[in-house]
């Protein structure tokens, strides 16, 4: 394996492989064989979505899970409670699919905010319908919101999301900005579609005090159209933004965050306008410092976006397992986490689940 495959310096990886025993040690947190500890939990609340983003879902949608296969409000609170009380999880992000499609989202947030060990609670959403629920979510205890927005052009939005909902998304972002101190905007750039919208989107975010993060497109789409040679890389994003801005690396510690942050200045002037992030999962991977664990909407642990195996927790929970048993299953699942996504390896295989079904 090369350093790029692993997302970590090869030497560090080799030492880690050699130094750690094959059997999981009895330590309290979600540790893996490579010495990483997961403290950041992504919970998928549903596999359904009201958009059909080309890089995520097929035009016709995907078969959806039967209602009783999806975690209920009480089951989510129970498993998140195990994660925060027994496993050292400190941050919980609700995602999907589209989490706003859960009618009980506000209650789910309130339940998690009332846990004995309360995590920081955030939401990733396409913001369609957020305008009506932002206040209630804030009151329930939601701390932060990340909104996905790839373009400000209605036609391009409709092309990428295959739904004409730009206005609803913008209304949702406005509401989020009124209620929350921190609003982050996620954008995926696609060559020939919205790459040349990048600077306008950044300008718009900077004017409003939002932190924009460009995410490199990953091979997690249903149509299997991802191609390394045509995807927009972090270096190309930086070059594209160079038409209006000067970027310099932010020296603040990254602290496990997926985004590499840059200080943004108007090109040719010294004026600092704000920050921008680039999540370079493909070309500059950060797997060596990964702190994430995931629960699918069916209550299964995924140790990585690119995992090919999952560990069911919902079945044992429904069969009466106690918290200690669930925590132990979760620890064992995370111990098996691979060093990195291995996207550069010739034997790389895209996971069966798409991003919408994993919980991005
Ligand atoms: N529906 C919500 C949304 O779009 O924000 C939450 C779920 S979505 C799967 C979470 C994030 O994953 C979004 O910001 C989206 O842009 C990103 N995403 C989806 N497919 C992706 C892909 N193939 N590569 C990189 N990011 C992707
Ligand atoms: Fe839905 Fe989010 Fe996937 Fe777009 S990226 S299809 S909004 S789950
Ligand atoms: Fe790497 Fe997997 Fe962590 Fe993503 S989830 S940073 S691919 S180890």
What features would you describe in this structure?
- With 360 residues, this protein is of the alpha/beta class.
- It is built from 12 helices and 14 strands.
- The strands form 2 sheets. Strands 9-10-11-8-7-6-5-4-3-12-13-14 form a 12-stranded mixed β-sheet. The protein has a two-stranded antiparallel sheet with strand order 1-2.
- Strand 1 (30-31) and strand 2 (37-38) form a beta hairpin.
- Helix 3 (73-86) runs parallel beside helix 4, helix 3 packs across helix 11 and helix 4 (105-113) runs parallel beside helix 5 (134-140).
- The longest helix has 14 residues, at 73-86.
- It starts with a helix and ends with a helix.
- Residues 7, 285-287, 290, 292, 304-306, 340-341 line the site of one iron/sulfur cluster.
Topology of this structure?
Layout: H1 3-6, H2 10-19, E1 30-31, E2 37-38, E3 40-44, H3 73-86, E4 91-95, H4 105-113, E5 120-125, H5 134-140, E6 144-148, H6 154-161, H7 166-179, E7 183-188, H8 198-208, E8 211-215, H9 234-241, E9 245-249, E10 260-266, E11 272-279, E12 292-295, E13 300-302, E14 311-312, H10 314-318, H11 323-335, H12 355-358
Parallel strand pairs: 3-4, 3-12, 4-5, 5-6, 6-7, 7-8, 8-11
Antiparallel strand pairs: 1-2, 9-10, 10-11, 12-13, 13-14
Helix pairs in contact: 3-4, 3-11, 4-5
Bound molecules: S-adenosylmethionine and iron/sulfur cluster (2 copies).
